[in-house]
Amino acid sequence: MQVAADTAAVMVTHNGERFVRQQCESIFQQSLLPAALVVVDDASHDATRAVLHDLTRTAPIPVELIMADGSGISDPKSRVAANVLAGLSAASEYDVAILSYQDDEWLVDRLVTQRAILRSTPGALLVAGDGILAQRHRIKRFFRGKVVRLVEQGFDHMAFRRGISNDDAIGKKC
Hints:
3-stranded antiparallel beta sheet; single chain; 4-stranded parallel beta sheet; alpha/beta; Spore Coat Polysaccharide Biosynthesis Protein SpsA, Chain A; 5 helices
């Protein structure tokens, strides 16, 4: 399999035993593999960590497991954000980081498509594309591929968190 030496996958988990194996396998089956998978597990109480340790033995790429304990952070959104930032920090040597959560399943060309869009679109910092959410016995497709161009001056983080206007996005299929 071909590996993108400039790209890492970053995943955060918490009590994701039911989904994490399927999610990791979808990353390992990409048409272009990331150079590494960084997983930040936030104090899981189920078998998530055991599943992750098992997966590291047969993974086709290096897997870095970061065991976090965000229990000191009371706001759930801040806790997730801290874990994402820890994963991004661990993957800082890579030019491209593709984010994931434990219950996502990647389409086979997610990495190659999103990486190509990021590398070919000046000013693009974020790509959202098609995916499959496998949660509570249902499968739901989400995102309809947009590339987000963030303006260097005057970027409003609150506006970005609430939604992205058409003026700030370039529509592309991924």
